[in-house]
Amino acid sequence: MLDAIGGHVAKRIRARHIHSVSRPADCVALLQAFADTGHSSVVMPELLAACALQVSIPAFAIAGPP
Fold this sequence. Notes:
Blueprint: H1 2-14, H2 24-37, H3 43-56, H4 59-63
């Protein structure tokens, strides 16, 4: 289940989808779920890279100024 969620989140972040996970706290919570369960999979590097991208780019740079 975590693989499906992680892959979906990473795909939406990379596509800069308007409803992608955008709050750093949400990205951290998702990564924490993987860490808490000790779950490791092929989606982890992709998810880590996507979350790092999402946290490092301000939301207005993606969606435009308010």
